[in-house]
Every structure is written in C-alpha cells, then in structure tokens.
C-alpha cells in the first residue's frame, strides 16, 4: 500500500518544491516561503524521510522566527513534535512541546493586547464603515443591471444548462420569466 502512495507524494513534493522556488524568486514573500517549507517538511515526514524533514522544518522555524511569524512557528513546532515522537526522541519532544506552549501563550497575549488597543478598535470601526459603504454601492449597482445583458455565463462558454436553471428574477418588476437561449 505504501508503494501506491509514494509516487503521488513524491510528485506532490516536487510540485511543492517548484512552488517554493517560484514563490521565493518571483513573489519574494518570505512568510509564504516559511509556510511552503513547513508543508515540504510535513510531506517529507509522511514519506518517513526524517533526516530531510528535520532539516526542512528547522529552516522553516528559523525563517518564521526571523519574520516574527508566531502562528507559523507554532505550526512548525507541532510538526517537529510529531517528528520527535516518530524518532522516539523524548527529550527533544518534551522541550519542543514546552516551547510550542510558550509560543501559543505569547500569541494569545499578543492577540488580547491587540484587541484592547485603541488603534485596533479604530481600525475595526473604519473597516465597518467602509464595508457599509461598499454594500450600498453594490445594492445600487445590482439595481441598475439591465436585463438585456446576457448573463448566461455557462451557455456563453459552451456548458449546457437545463431550462429549470434558466429562470431569473426580474429585478425591476419582480416578475419571473424564462430566458431565451
């Protein structure tokens, strides 16, 4: 059964490695690179390549620490704990789990601090106002849609649809009618 899954996992590992390279070279998003590394490390662990998994996960943790990305650090630490469990390294497992708990507590403290900050409250109020304004624009835009416009997107790209799915509500008059194909 393992031989059935391994080619698929190796193919996935190669595609993820390519995605990692593209992310790093073209986007320069180091947070995403750290997350890609965590996925690659998890996949290496699933393939029982513990040497590669440890190396990849340590790289991911180092990068996440440099970025102060605590959620990714917690994620990497949880995968490392699984790695240490699989290897039977109780000392590393316990030390890692303790560090993971400290990071989770740190994240929780930071979230509480952020939520109680006046800047956070002002930002939330500002976003709520912007959302209400956008909803008003969307309602006006929806009311101005002309029924003469072809909204049959599936039909326009060659996908057949049943006549029961072609009923539309007439926005202006509230009447229902079948649309012509």
UniProtKB/TrEMBL annotation:
SUPFAM superfamilies, per the entry: TPR-like (SSF48452)
Location of this chain's protein in the cell: Nucleus
Superkingdom field: Eukaryota
Keywords assigned by UniProt, alphabetized: Cell cycle, Cell division, Chromosome partition, Mitosis, Nucleus
GO BP annotation list: cell division; chromosome segregation; mitotic sister chromatid cohesion
Alphabetical list of InterPro entries matching this protein: MAU2 (IPR019440), TPR-like_helical_dom_sf (IPR011990)
Record's GO cellular component terms: nucleus
Family note: Belongs to the SCC4/mau-2 family.
Descriptive protein name: MalT-like TPR region domain-containing protein
The organism of origin for this protein: Cucumis sativus (Cucumber)
Lineage, opening ranks: Eukaryota, Viridiplantae, Streptophyta, Embryophyta, Tracheophyta
């Amino acid at each position: 059964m393992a031989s059935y899954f391994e080619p698929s996992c190796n193919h996935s590992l190669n595609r993820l490695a390519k995605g990692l390279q593209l992310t790093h070279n073209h986007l320069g998003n180091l947070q995403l690179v750290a997350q890609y590394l965590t996925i690659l490390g998890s996949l290496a662990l699933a393939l029982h390549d513990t040497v590669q998994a440890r190396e990849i996960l340590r790289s991911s943790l180092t990068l996440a620490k440099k970025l102060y990305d605590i959620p990714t650090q917690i994620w990497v630490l949880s995968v490392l704990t699984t790695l240490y469990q699989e290897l039977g390294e109780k000392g590393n497992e316990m030390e890692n789990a303790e560090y993971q708990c400290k990071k989770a507590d740190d994240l929780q403290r930071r979230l509480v601090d952020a939520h109680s900050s006046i800047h956070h409250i002002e930002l939330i109020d500002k976003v709520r106002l912007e959302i209400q304004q956008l909803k008003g624009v969307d309602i006006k835009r929806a009311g101005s849609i002309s029924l003469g416009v072809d909204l049959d997107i599936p039909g326009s790209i060659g996908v057949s649809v049943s006549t029961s799915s072609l009923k539309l509500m007439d926005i202006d008059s509230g009447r229902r009618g079948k649309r012509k194909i």
